[in-house]
């Protein structure tokens, strides 16, 4: 394997997880139900009807996971905080036991020199909030700000870097538009108010975190560079429509203070926007999180009554077990396109998720030789470095994920982890990719130390 090029001296190396996917303990210590608890209970919603009641048992076994990260040598850990574990009803009574858990986790990370970078919302909306209307309702954004204030008051003396939301496009599209994720609504483009209310929640929370003394506030979006299937006018217009819905809708209001023109899709901006909302949404942030897995190939829709575009498979590309094409150059393009599109309005970029699903059984000696994951990570890190060389200001990289986990509607069938988790005992076993990433970080930080 070729030596990885040297990244900037202050580049942050990390791993990422999310609360619902790893914590388990769903009925423990006062945690309320989330929309994902409800969704999992519906037969047929989750592959194999898997349940997440225990997940990776991180709630009990977090010391083991912190030790794994210490061995890995990461600078930072991106995790998420479960809103229903802190405010079970979404508003009102605070569950101190939930705060105590994250207090212990942050202390454990700090004790071994790992920077905690929590995400405040990674799709696990309290079920009682959903019962009141969920993200279709403006008040949910206000309740999110109140929850943020509670968390920041407890952890803000040790946590200085915060991420407000994770992938608001996916939560809107998959959870409210198409119904394949919780809360399971099938509203199509009528789900557009969900976009605005999530962005408003981000802006309100940003203000709360500023008052709490945060050093950095980020928003994490998913980005997937869009390729028209052909140069025909229809396919090019379809690609532009998809780009505006997936990317510009969740980035322009934050960085430019305005919604993109959505007329290409036959719709206006969300009709729930009030005077002053965009000023709140566009409060300055200190970084933009980029989640990248693969690009998108788009053609004009055969049935324009639904959407003006349709997604088309890439021909000839290698694929992960999830079926996603492996195209590392898309990550370079994502980072350089954002740099070119937003210019001086763009804050520093952070690759807050990148990884791949491959299932590999342990050999007779207990080793998990996941070379495909190593190849994937190596190629995508080189893609990040190429973007840096082309002028993108990228501050860090977080591998998705530390652990094999509950992969939403796929249950436990997709394995993204550097560490395998036994489905019965929940015991951990590192893979070859864990050792590869450990050596890479040691090499990069060793070069950093030598330069100092």
UniProtKB/TrEMBL annotation:
The organism's place on the tree of life at top rank: Bacteria
GO biological process annotation, one example: cellulose catabolic process
Sites where the protein binds substrate: 21, 122, 166, 293, 400, 407-408
Single GO MF descriptor: beta-glucosidase activity
One Gene Ontology CC term in the entry: cytosol
UniProt-listed Enzyme Commission number(s): 3.2.1.21
Keywords: Carbohydrate metabolism, Cellulose degradation, Glycosidase, Hydrolase, Polysaccharide degradation
Record has Membrane as a keyword: no
SUPFAM superfamilies: (Trans)glycosidases (SSF51445)
Record Pfam families: Glyco_hydro_1
Enzyme class name: hydrolase
Keyword Hydrolase carried by entry: yes
Active site per the UniProt annotation: 167, 353
Reactions accelerated catalytically: Hydrolysis of terminal, non-reducing beta-D-glucosyl residues with release of beta-D-glucose
Signal peptide range in chain numbering: none
Xref: PANTHER family: GLYCOSYL HYDROLASE (PTHR10353), LP05116P (PTHR10353:SF36)
Family: Belongs to the glycosyl hydrolase 1 family.
Name of the protein in its database record: Beta-glucosidase
């Amino acid at each position: 394997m070729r030596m990885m090029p040297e990244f900037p001296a202050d580049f942050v190396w990390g791993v990422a997880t999310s609360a619902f996917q790893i914590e388990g303990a769903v009925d423990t210590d006062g945690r309320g139900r989330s929309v994902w608890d409800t969704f999992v209970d519906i037969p047929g919603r989750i592959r194999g009807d898997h349940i997440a009641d225990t997940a990776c048992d991180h709630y009990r076994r977090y010391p083991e996971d912190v030790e794994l990260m210490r061995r890995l040598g990461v600078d930072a850990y991106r995790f998420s905080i479960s809103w229903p574990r802190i405010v079970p009803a979404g508003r009102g009574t605070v569950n101190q036991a939930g705060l105590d858990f994250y207090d212990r986790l942050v202390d454990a990370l700090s004790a071994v020199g790992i920077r905690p970078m929590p995400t405040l919302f990674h799709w696990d909306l309290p079920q009682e909030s959903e019962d009141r209307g969920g993200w279709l309702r403006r008040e949910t954004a206000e309740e999110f700000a109140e929850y943020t204030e509670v968390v920041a008051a407890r952890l803000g003396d040790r946590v200085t870097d915060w991420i407000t939301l994770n992938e608001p496009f996916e939560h809107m599209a998959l959870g409210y538009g198409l119904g394949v994720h919780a809360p399971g609504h099938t509203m199509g483009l009528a789900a557009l108010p969900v976009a605005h209310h999530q962005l408003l929640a981000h802006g309100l929370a940003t203000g709360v975190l500023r008052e709490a003394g945060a050093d950095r506030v980020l928003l994490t979006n998913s980005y997937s560079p869009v390729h028209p299937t052909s140069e025909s006018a229809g396919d090019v217009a379809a690609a532009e429509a998809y780009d505006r819905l997936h990317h510009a809708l969740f980035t322009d209001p934050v960085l430019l203070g305005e919604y993109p023109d959505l007329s290409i899709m036959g719709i206006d901006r969300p009709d729930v926007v009030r005077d002053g909302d965009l000023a709140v949404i566009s409060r300055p942030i200190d970084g933009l999180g980029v989640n990248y897995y693969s690009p998108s190939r788009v053609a004009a829709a055969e049935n324009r009554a639904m959407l003006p575009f349709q997604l088309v498979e890439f021909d000839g590309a290698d694929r992960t077990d999830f079926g996603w094409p492996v195209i590392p150059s898309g990550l370079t393009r994502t980072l350089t396109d954002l740099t070119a599109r937003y210019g001086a309005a763009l804050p520093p970029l952070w690759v807050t998720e990148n990884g791949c699903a491959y299932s590999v059984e342990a050999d007779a000696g207990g080793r998990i030789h996941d070379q495909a994951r190593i190849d994937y990570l190596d190629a995508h890190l080189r893609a990040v470095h190429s973007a840096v060389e082309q002028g993108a200001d990228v501050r860090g990289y977080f591998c998705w994920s530390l652990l094999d986990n509950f992969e939403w509607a796929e249950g436990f069938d997709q394995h993204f982890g550097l560490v395998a988790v036994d489905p019965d005992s929940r015991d951990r076993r590192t893979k070859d990719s864990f050792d590869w990433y450990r050596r890479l970080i040691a090499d990069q930080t060793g070069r950093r130390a030598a330069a100092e």
